[in-house]
TrEMBL record:
Residues 80-272 form the Fructose-1-6-bisphosphatase class I N-terminal domain. The lineage of its organism: Eukaryota, Viridiplantae, Streptophyta, Embryophyta, Tracheophyta. Pathway: Carbohydrate biosynthesis; Calvin cycle. It comes from Tagetes erecta. Homotetramer. It is found in: Plastid, Chloroplast. Keywords: Calvin cycle, Carbohydrate metabolism, Chloroplast, Disulfide bond, Hydrolase, Magnesium, Metal-binding, Plastid, Transit peptide. It is an enzyme of class 3 (hydrolase). Residues 276-406 form the Fructose-1-6-bisphosphatase class 1 C-terminal domain. GO terms for molecular function: fructose 1,6-bisphosphate 1-phosphatase activity; metal ion binding. This is fructose-bisphosphatase. Its cofactor is Mg(2+). InterPro entries: FBPase_C_dom (IPR044015), FBPase_class-1 (IPR000146), FBPase_N (IPR033391), FBPtase (IPR028343).
């Protein structure tokens, strides 16, 4: 332990100064001992000369100070949640495996240009979108990590045509839905990307035999089991890949964010129990589609762009092109994000099962709201794995204002 340094206050203290003020005009520093912090007084300890005239400092009430080296990593936090009965041991393993996949993806993204994994794969996914090389690689990483746990029954991904029943599973029956790389168009220019995931308990266990006679029937069974409303989610989260790598999660008791410490290779708790601001001055829409939007929505956007307003400040328009980035900013700063339907996209652009539902779950856990313009996102019953939906999500006051325009 470091040696205590005595605190000595004496009228004979000599004051040195390089200013032009005569020394005779300077007074020694005289601070009453009672005004010193208890920390300084305690520091005097045995090293300071005892004095019968020195008043006894008033002790500070017991208050635990956080050690600057004290960190809580994701593994420890998950184990505490398990001990508290919020999750079981199997879900702890599944969540840990997802965090491992996110670490691997973060590493690949940082080196993507160096190891030549940028650009397109030359294939298209089930939605008819060009796949990036990292879309395919990230999907494999997620699938491999989830298979290795032995706790996952079904995997449904943006990059898979149909849900995959995990053949290697022992006793696990969790359904994990995910978008391995959200905002993949940003990869080649090193902008914000992310991963999104949600975890469900299936209506019934879906373990299948992979022979040709039962494959189609097994796929149908899996699809029925996967397509659940977001209100059934057991856990959801995302991983943001940007200037920092941030793993944000909810298991139904609030939203918590962990930042990857590259020195240790661990996700460390940095944002505990996030609460979205009730209102915000940031809106995020792809206004390139403004002329394709519903007139009611156009009126709402016109209102946001007007200078002044009740708070005396205009709204700021921000659009990243990555749902994870939009939601992360909104959780911390508030505001509203919209990806509405339009003349060319009658059902919107985002997928309900593995994009909108997990993000809506997170935002609601933080005190926000999410709607398709008519009903709550988490109440929508998916009928297809890759079903799309419009979405408006954000601070509760901002969503209420938007709904007033759409009514």
């Amino acid at each position: 332990m470091a040696e205590s340094i005595p605190v000595i206050i004496s009228p004979a203290t000599t004051v040195f100064s390089t200013s032009s003020i005569p020394l005779s005009h300077l007074r020694p520093f005289r601070q009453p001992i009672s005004s010193l912090s208890c920390y300084a007084v305690a520091g005097a300890g045995a090293g300071a000369a005892s004095s019968s005239t020195t008043p006894t400092p008033t002790p500070i009430k017991n208050k635990k100070k956080k050690n600057r080296y004290e960190m809580e990593n994701l593994t420890t936090w998950l184990l505490k949640q398990e001990q508290a009965g919020h999750i079981d041991a199997e879900l702890t393993i599944v969540l840990s495996s997802i965090s491992l996949a996110c670490k691997q993806i973060a590493s690949l993204l940082q080196r993507s240009s160096i190891i030549n994994i940028t650009g397109t794969q030359g294939t298209m996914n089930i939605q008819g979108e060009d796949q990036k090389k990292l879309d395919v690689i990230s999907n494999e990483l997620f699938c491999n990590c989830l298979r290795s746990t032995g706790r996952t029954g079904i995997i449904a991904s943006e990059e898979e045509d149909v849900p995959v029943a995990v053949e290697e599973t022992d006793s696990g029956n969790y359904i994990v839905v995910f978008d391995p790389i959200d905002g993949s168009a940003n990869i080649d220019i090193s902008l914000t990307t992310g991963s999104i995931f949600g975890i469900y308990a299936p209506d019934e266990q879906c373990l299948v035999d992979y022979d040709e006679d039962t494959l189609d029937q097994a796929k149908e069974k899996c699809i029925v089991s996967v397509c659940q409303p977001g209100s059934n989610l057991l856990a959801a989260g995302y991983c943001l890949y940007s200037s920092s790598v941030v793993f944000t999660i909810s298991i139904g008791n609030g939203v918590h964010a962990f930042t990857l410490d590259p020195a240790y290779g661990e996700f460390v708790l940095t944002h505990e129990d996030i609460k979205i601001p009730k209102s915000g001055r940031i809106y995020s829409f792809n206004e390139g589609n403004y002329d394709l939007f519903d007139p009611k929505l156009q009126n709402y956007l016109d209102h946001l762009r007007k200078p002044g307003g009740a708070a005396g400040k205009p709204y700021s328009g921000r659009y990243i092109g990555c749902l994870v980035g939009e939601i992360h900013r909104m959780l911390l700063y508030g505001g509203v994000y919209g990806n509405p339907d339009n003349v060319k996209a009658k059902t919107g652009n985002l997928r309900l099962l593995y994009e909108c539902a997990p993000m809506s779950y997170l935002v609601e856990q933080a005190g926000g709201k999410a709607t398709d313009g008519v009903q709550r996102i988490l109440d929508i019953q998916p009928k297809q794995v890759h079903q799309r939906t419009p979405i408006f999500i954000g601070s509760p006051d901002e969503i209420d204002k938007l709904m007033a325009y759409l009514a």
